[in-house]
Amino acid sequence: MDSNINEVEVRFISRMLSRLVGEMNATVCEQCGKCSSTCPVSKEIEGFNPRRLIAKVSLGKINGLLRDDAIWTCTTCLKCQERCPEDISPYDVILILRNLAYRAGYSYPTGYDDFIRAVKECGFISMPKAIRTRDRGKVSRGDLGLPEVSGPTDMAKFTVVVEGIIEAGKQS
Amino acid sequence: MRYALYLGCTIQSEQYGYEASVRETLPRLGIEFEDMEGVSCCGSPALNSVSRLGWHYLSARNLAIAENMGLPVLPLCNGCHLSFVETKHFLEKDPELKNVINMNLEKEGLNYRGDVRIVHLLEALHDEVGAQKISEKVVKPLGGIKLASHPGCHAIRPSGLQNVDDAEDPKKLDDLIRALGAETFNYPEKTDCCGSQLAVTSGRVTLKIAGEKLQAVKSYGFDGLVTTCPFCFKMYDGRQRAIKGALKDASLDLPVFYYTQLLGLAMGLGPKKLGLDLNMSPIDSVLERILEE
Fold first, then answer.
1. N or C: which end of chain B has fewer CB within 10 A?
2. How many angstroms separate the CA of residue B66 from the nearest CA in chain A?
3. Cβ-proximal residues to B239 (8 Å cutoff; 6+ apart), any chain
4. CB B201 to CB A123 under 8 A?
C-alpha cells in the first residue's frame, strides 16, 4: 500500500467536500427544492431527496448519509446542479459521499467491484463481443469490418499503476 | 478537421451500429480521424463513484495520449465526453492533483499537459461541418418522418463546464435532424434522463424512468427517437422489450436510431453498412419509408 497516494486521496476528497460544504452552508441553500423537483429519482425512490441531502451535509450530518443506500440511486443526470439558483451541485456532493462511503467500507452496489476488476484486467469495463442482430443472427467487430480494439500497451504496468491508485485509499 | 477518435468501452464492445455509421459518414463530411493506440476506459461510471483519483487517472491517461497525437479528441460517448471535460476542469483547478496524476502517468511513459481540446460529436457535426453543408450531402431526404431529438444529459449539462449546446433548450441535434429532411419539434421531456446509470442499483426504476419518456415521445406522434449517446441508445433501443414488460405496455413500440445511422441513409448509404440490422427496436417500417422515397 502506497501511503503517499492514500494521504493525497484523503486530503483531496476532504478538500473537495469542505469546499462544497463551505459554499453551501445553511445561509446559501435556501431549501427552495428546485433540485428535488427536477430529480428523476426523487419521484420514484422514497428516501432520495437532494434538497434534504444538501440540508444534512450543510449541517455536517453526513454519517447517516454515508450508510444510506439512497446515495447510490442518483442517475447523474445533473439537472439538480443545472437548476440550482445558488450554483450548488448535489451531483458532485453525491459522488463525493459515494467515494467516502466506499473508502469507509460501508455498503455499495456490487456492480462497482465488477467494473474495477474488469478495468484492472483489460483496461475497459467490457471487451468486444459478438452481438445479436434484429433477425437473431450474431456479428463480431471483424464481421463488420471494424478495426481491432487497442488497449494499454503494457498491460502489466497499467494494472499495477491503476491498482495502486484505486486500492491505496480504501479501508478494508 | 482531424481528430483522435475515442470510442470508449460501451461502443467498442457492443454498440457497433454507432461505430460503423460514424466510420462511414464522418469522412464523407470532411471529418478525418485517427484511432487512438493504448487507450483505456475513461473512468466513468466505473470509478467516479468509488475512486476519484482512479477516475481522473484514467481520463487524464486518455487525454495524454490524444495530446501526444497532437489532435483534439472526439469521444463518441456522452459519458466519456463529460468524464474528460470534468477531469480537465478538476486538474486545472488543483495543481497538486495534476502532479499526483502525472507522477503515476510517468510510470506508463505518459504526461498530461492539459491543453487538449475535447470536442463532442454534436459540435463537430453542427459547429464545424454545419447543418447547411450536411443538407447539401443529402441524396435521400427523410421527408415526412418525425423524429424526437434526445441529446442526453452528459452532452448538455452542466452548462458551467461545457457548452456543447444550451442546457435548457438544446437545438443542435434538432438542426442536424432537419438537415436530413426529417421533421422534429420540441417536447417537454426532451432534456430528461434515460435512467441508465441507475441500472447498477435498481433495474426496475431504470426501466420505469426510460419507459415513461418513451411513452411521452410516442404520444406526441413522433415516428422515432434519435440520439448520439450509447448509454441512452442501449436503454431505449436494446432494452425496449424489457421496458414494455416492466410497464406492461404492449403498444410501446418506438424506433430508435443513432444520428449517424440516419445521416448515412440520407447520404444514400446502405442500411447494412450503417449497422441498422443491429437496432433492436422496431425500425423496419421507418426504414422502409426512408428507402422507398
1. C
2. 14
3. B207, B210
4. no
- Closest to A99 (Cβ–Cβ): which among B12, B50, B168? B50
Residues of B in contact with A137 (CB under 8 A): 277
Instruction: Name every chain A residue with its beta carbon within 8 A of the beta carbon of B195.
Output: 40, 75
pLDDT by position in tens, chain B (length 293): 999 999 999 999 999 999 999 999 999 999 999 999 999 999 999 999 999 999 999 999 999 999 999 999 999 999 999 999 999 999 999 998 999 999 999 999 999 999 999 999 999 999 999 999 999 999 999 999 999 999 999 999 999 998 899 999 999 999 999 999 999 999 999 999 999 998 878 788 999 999 999 999 999 999 999 999 999 999 999 999 999 999 999 999 999 999 999 999 999 999 999 999 999 999 999 999 999 86
C-alpha cell at A53: 441531502
CA distance B70 to chain A (A): 19
B12–A149 C-beta distance less than 8 A: yes
- Clarify whether residues A10 and A77 are in a common domain: yes
Q: How many helices (H) and strands (E) does chain B have?
A: 14, 6
Q: What is the pTM assigned to this prediction?
A: 0.95
Domain of residue A160 covers 111-168
- Across the interface, whether the CB atoms of B7 and A149 are under 8 A apart is answered yes
